[in-house]
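Aim 2, interim progress: modelling of the glycyl-adenosine-5'-phosphate-bound target.
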Amino acid sequence: MQMESLVALCKRRGFLFQSSEIYGGLNGFWDYGPLGVLLKRNVKETWWNDNVLNHNELIQPNNAPSTYEMTGLDCTIIMHPQVWKCSGHYDLFHDFMVDCRESKKRYRYDHVLGRYVTGKKHGSEGAPSEIVKVFVTTMETENTQSALDEAALKFFGIRKKDIEVLQWEGDITSISKLTSFENVLGPDAKHIGTLTEPREFNLMFKTTIGALGGEDDYSFLRPETAQGIFVNFKNVCDSTRVRVPFGIAQVGKSFRNEITPRNFTFRSREFEQMEIEFFCHPAQSAQWYQYWRDKRFAWYTQMGLSGEKLRLREHDADELSHYSCGTADIEYAFPFLAEGEYGELEGIAHRGDFDLRSHMEGKLVKDGNALIVEKLPNGQPKHRGSGKDLSYYDDLAKERFIPHVIEPSAGADRATLAFLCEAYNVDNAPDENGKPQERVFLKFHPRLAPVKAAVFPLVKKDSMPEIAQEIYGELKREPLTASAVYDDKGAVGRRYRRQDEIGTPYCITVDGQTLQDGTVTLRDRDTLEQVRIKKDNLIAELDGRLKQ
Ligand code: GAP
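Predicted structure of the complex, ligand included:
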């Protein structure tokens, strides 16, 4: 599937629009259109139902170390600035950037890729030609070598047919592997040596609280929803009857000032997360980590992502975040990535007691295998914790401990994008005259499909519109089919195609036979099979089919 076709469909049919498009758009921000909002809500609701509401706390699921409870929170986006100091985001949530003095553009250091090439460079204003070896660069793309070819041709001023005169050396590597940028040609530069040394750039959006805006009146838009859960751990324990092990779930917006937002919604600056912080006894945390890894992977396969495009990858030790003592990523082979590459959908991290202890004692740092409070030269903690006791007392085991945390952290936008990519299908289906015709259809899982059913009168006469509207009204009253649509415009074959293109699993048509025997046709998006059903049985039939 070509990514451009999906992006075009998303805009044409109202799934996704660029934010502030009439003003030229805003890089890294996306708006969900009328169908997109339904799709994304279904993703979030399915996640919430499957992890929180439908979880039966009295029954021990397969492979779970014990029974457990689940609950939820909805915390604020702006929190006390100390939260981000103790969480580590204030000091550590950085990317390295390089600026180009010539093009005035800024690039994420590790995303600028290049390769050494040697060729003859004509001297300017009559100066003799010379042989030059330069590290030509481009931003990571689907076909990096062809982008590098183009940049080299431009730099040496030669035509494509003469490309053979250029001598390439070594593999494509990131400029972060170089020791000097002296011979580097920036991605948008004409001259070499214009990139600055890398500089750190904090990814949190800073904001001012209140009208005065003094030095102490700032905070940040949250870069993850997780911290709201940690700082409320005690509130939840004190206000409910939950017992460890239990999980707190939260769905909400997060913000990161990404240096290179790209690949449609994959890397945005404003996005939604679906996170669980699962609190357990330290002795059981390794088993719970396995449990959540497997449960979350299974969820994506149940929702339709499967086969070789989905994988679970355990992080190497050098990839682990500052807090993590074990992380696995669930990854999907998005079509905008190069062959063999995968993009992260969700991370499942074993966070140990890092977060609860940091919010108690102050920001922690690793000291060998231990975590200790980071100190200033004068011996004071670098960032003070709340001083509150966030330990847990198990009154049955008569034991006090700081729970360990397993965190399955998913992106609602990335999951939505993966479901869109996976759903995009093209086949040659017969049209209403039986002739094969190219058909684009979104093969969503019925639980995710934005519109579950569409109702058509075959023609706009003989009471067909009235009967179709009556059916439509009934579907609208049922929560499961409340997003149903009514369409009486154009040939029925074209109406089917319109619904296929937005992934509607079922179309119901009222025709001449309906007037005689009270039956309607029910058409299946994927098999194209049409069956006749008594219209009075329609709700029950759809209920059965949609709840598979
Ligand atoms: N609390 C842990 C945490 O936030 P993360 O791996 O940084 O971990 C979790 O983020 C998930 O949030 C990612 O797997 C991804 O799905 C989503 N995500 C992160 N940054 C994103 C961005 N810039 N745009 C869209 N989704 C993003």
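Residues 224, 226, 256, 258, 267-268, 271, 273, 275, 344-347, 407, 409-411, 413-414 surround glycyl-adenosine-5'-phosphate (CB under 6 Å). The chain has a mean pLDDT of 94.
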